[in-house]
Amino acid sequence: MMPSVKDNARIVAAAKADPNAQPMTKEQLDAFVPISVARGRPKSENKKLLLSIRHSVEVVEYFRSTGDGWQARMGSVLRQYVSQHVSCSNAT
Question: Can you give the pTM of this predicted structure?
Answer without folding.
Answer: 0.48
